[in-house]
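QA checklist item 7 of 12: single-chain prediction sanity check.
[x] sequence parsed
[x] length recorded as 321
[x] structure emitted
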Amino acid sequence: MSRAALLLTGLLAVALVFPWLAGGYALSVGTLILYFAYTSQSWNVMMGFAGQLSLGHALYVGIGAYAAGALFYHFGIGPWAGLPLAVALAALAGVVIACLAFRFGVSGVYFALLTIAFAEFTRIGFDHVSWTGGPGGMFLKVEQRDSIDLVHLRGPPALYYYVMLALTAGALALCSRLLGSRAGYYWRAIRENEEAAQALGINVFRWKVLAMAISAGMTAISGVFFAFYNNSLFPEQVFNTGRSIEIVLGSVIGGVGTLFGPIFGAAVFTLLSEGATEALRAVGWEIPGSKGVVYGVVLLLVIVFLPQGIWPPLARRLGIR
C-alpha cells in the first residue's frame, strides 16, 4: 500500500470514529471542516485543475440551497429528490457564465470580477423574490427528532457529520479520477499555457466550460446540505462574497491543484478561526469580524512562507507524490 493510501486510510479511520469521541461543539466544528473541505475541493476543479479563478462560487451554493430548499418548503419534496435539480441549475448557470466569459476572451482578474458580479446580481434578485422569502428569509419546516431520517436529512448532529464526510470522500475520489483522466491532462495543459494547449489541438473553450460545469454542480450539492443543516436561508447570508472567500481559502492555504490540500487547508483555517473566537469569548471579548482577521493573518503567513500551500512541502517530507 502506498503512503498516500495509508494516509487516506488513517484520515478516514479518525474521521469515522470522531463523533463517538467528540462533544457537541467539537462535532459541529468537524462538520464545518468537512463542509469547507468539500466546497474547496469543488472550487479546486475550476482553479486548481483548469487555472480559471472564480471568486463568486457562493452563487452555486445559493442556487443549490434555494432549489432544494424551495422544493421542500412549498411541495414537501425531500433533499435527495431536489438534488438533481439543484445540480442541473447550478451547472447551467456555470455554463452560461463560462460561455459568456470565454467566448469573448474574458480571463484572469476580469473573469474573477465577472463571477463576483453574477453572485451579487443573484443576491439582489433573490432579495426581491417573495416565493423564496425575499430578504426576510426562507425557513424550512423542522421536526425535532432523535432518530435518523436520512430521506429528509433530519436527525442528530452526527447524521450531518457523516453525510458531509461521505460527500467529502466522494469529492476526493472524483477529483482523483478526473486528474488521471484525459480531462485532467487537458485542464493542466490549459492551466500552464493556454496558447500552447490550443496550438496542440485542445479545444480550450470546451474544456474550460466543462470544468466550470463540474465545479458548479459539485458546489451546488454543498448548498443542498447547507439548506437542511441550517434550516434557514437568507440571500445576504448565502450569496455573500465572504462565503465565496471561505470556499477559496481551503485550497489556497492547503495547496491549489492538489488533492489533499483543500482538506488540510480547511482544517487549519477553521480550527484557527474557531479557536480564536472561543479564546476571545473566554476573556469576555466579542469582536465583530474576528474570524475575518484570522483568515487574513493565516492567508498572509501562507503566502509569505508557504506560497504553494501547506500540503506540498508536507507531502515532500512524508514522501508522498
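[x] summary fact logged: Residues 3-318 form a domain with the ABC transporter involved in vitamin B12 uptake, BtuC fold (CATH 1.10.3470).
[ ] second reviewer sign-off
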